[in-house]
Amino acid sequence: MTFYKGGARKRRDKIEGEIIAHLRARGAQTWQLSGRSIPDLLVWTDHPIVLEIKSGKAPLSAVQAHDQNPWPVVRSVPEAVLAVFGRFPS
Hints:
Layout: E1 2-4, H1 16-25, E2 29-34, E3 41-44, E4 48-53, H2 62-65, E5 73-74, H3 77-85
Helix pairs in contact: 1-3
């Protein structure tokens, strides 16, 4: 597993940069993750949370689609903010 504070060295989902910008604007720290079968983003506010980011209608992998998926899959900025802060952005 690899941590990148800036841009990760693999192809990223198109919406990821926008999600990171909105989370950081609300005071969250973010780290992009890369590796097999791990989520895309580690976010820290007052507690850690990891997010799997998917752009548009990108399909989920078998692990991500499973009902027991341990982290949220988000496809938009409002979904990401809701997952991290527990409320929609105002």
